[in-house]
Design a protein that fits this description.
The protein has 287 residues and is an alpha/beta fold. 35% of the residues lie in helices and 18% in strands. A seven-stranded parallel beta sheet has the order 3-2-1-4-5-7-11, with helices on both faces. A two-stranded parallel ribbon has the order 6-13. Strand 1, helix 1 and strand 2 form a beta-alpha-beta unit. The radius of gyration is 19 Å and the shape is globular. It starts with a strand and ends with a helix.
Length: 287
C-alpha cells in the first residue's frame, strides 16, 4: 500500500483518488474546501499558494500528484494555481521533510501553439500563443527544477460525467460547422485519471506524455457523429464571423498523438470520443 498526496483534488484528482482507494492505497487530498473530496480521501485543508496554511503531511509520502485547476480564466488565476500553487506545494513537502519517489503533474496541450493541423508528439516544439500555455510551460519548468523525479502529462480537452456541455449544445441546436478542417484533442476524465495512476507506479516512465485519446478528430466529424447519435439534423455551416467570435472554438488546430502513452502499457477505456460520448448519452449524463 502506498501513501499518495493529491494537490488539487478536483475533477480529475477525485477520480484518481477513487481508483487508488479501491486498490487499497491511502490517499490524502489537499483542498481549500475538503468537503468536496471523494469518499475515503484523508483531507488536508489549506491553500497551496500559502504553504503555512496547509495541515501536516502524513508520516510518509510515497507519491504525489499535482492536478490543480484555475478558479477562473484570468492570467492572474492561472499564475496563482500553476505557479504559486506548485511552488507552495513543493515548499510544503520540503518543510514537512517529505521527498516523494515521484510527482506526476497534469499540464495541458495548450503549451503547443500550432494551429494548422500539425502532428504533435512529445518532441514537438512548444510555442504557446496565450498565457494559459505559457503559464503551464513555466510550471513544468518549476517542477523539473525541484530535483524530485517527476512526470508531466499534457492533457487534451477533458470531458466526462458533469462535463457534457457539448451534448447539451447539440440538443439545443447550438453547434455549427467550420468550412475547413479543425482538429480537436480530447480525453475522458476516467482515462486522464487512469493514465496518471498508471504513470505514478510505472517502473521507468518517460518525463513527458501527451494525455489524449487515440483520435485527433476533425471538429466536424465529432459534431456530425454526435448529431446522428442524438437523432438530430446535421449541424449547419457557420460563417467565419460566428466562428471567430466563439471562444469555445478559439484553440489551435493540431493532431496530438498518444503513442508514447499507449507504448507505456496504458490501455484506454474510451479510445475515441465515440466510446466516451456514447457512454455519457446512454447514462443520460448531461449538464
Amino acid at each position: 500500500m502506498a501513501r499518495v498526496v493529491i494537490a488539487g483534488c478536483g475533477y480529475v484528482g477525485n477520480a484518481l483518488a477513487a481508483m487508488l482507494i479501491a486498490e487499497g492505497h491511502e490517499v490524502f487530498g489537499i483542498r481549500r474546501d475538503p468537503t468536496r473530496l471523494a469518499q475515503g480521501v484523508v483531507p488536508i485543508r489549506g491553500d497551496l499558494g500559502r504553504p503555512a496554511s496547509l495541515g501536516p503531511a502524513p508520516p510518509r509520502v510515497d507519491y504525489a500528484v499535482f492536478a490543480v485547476g484555475a478558479d477562473e480564466g484570468s492570467e492572474q488565476a492561472y499564475r496563482r494555481a500553476y505557479l504559486d500553487g506548485l511552488a507552495g506545494f513543493l515548499e510544503w513537502l520540503a518543510n514537512e521533510g517529505q521527498r516523494p519517489r515521484r510527482i506526476v503533474m497534469t499540464s495541458s496541450t495548450s503549451v503547443y501553439g500550432q494551429r494548422r493541423g500539425e502532428a504533435i508528439d512529445e518532441a514537438s516544439p512548444t510555442h504557446p500563443t496565450q498565457f494559459r500555455g505559457s503559464t503551464m510551460l513555466a510550471s513544468e519548468g518549476l517542477l523539473s527544477a525541484s530535483g524530485i523525479p517527476s512526470v508531466v502529462v499534457r492533457l487534451g480537452g477533458i470531458y466526462g460525467p458533469g462535463r457534457t456541455s457539448l451534448i447539451t449544445r447539440a440538443r439545443k441546436g447550438a453547434l455549427s460547422l467550420r468550412g475547413t478542417p479543425h482538429y480537436t484533442n480530447r480525453i475522458h476524465r476516467d482515462d486522464a485519471a487512469g493514465l496518471v495512476r498508471h504513470l505514478l507506479f510505472h517502473p521507468a516512465p518517460e518525463p513527458l506524455y501527451l494525455g489524449v485519446d487515440d483520435e485527433p478528430a476533425d471538429e466536424a466529424t465529432v459534431y456530425g457523429w454526435l448529431a446522428k447519435e442524438l437523432g438530430l439534423p446535421e449541424p449547419p455551416l457557420a460563417n467565419e464571423a460566428v466562428v471567430g467570435d466563439d471562444r469555445r472554438r478559439s484553440a489551435g488546430s493540431k493532431r496530438c498523438s498518444n503513442r508514447r502513452a499507449r507504448e507505456s502499457g496504458y490501455r484506454f477505456r474510451y479510445p475515441t470520443f465515440r466510446e466516451g460520448y456514447a457512454a455519457l448519452i446512454q447514462a443520460g449524463d448531461e449538464a
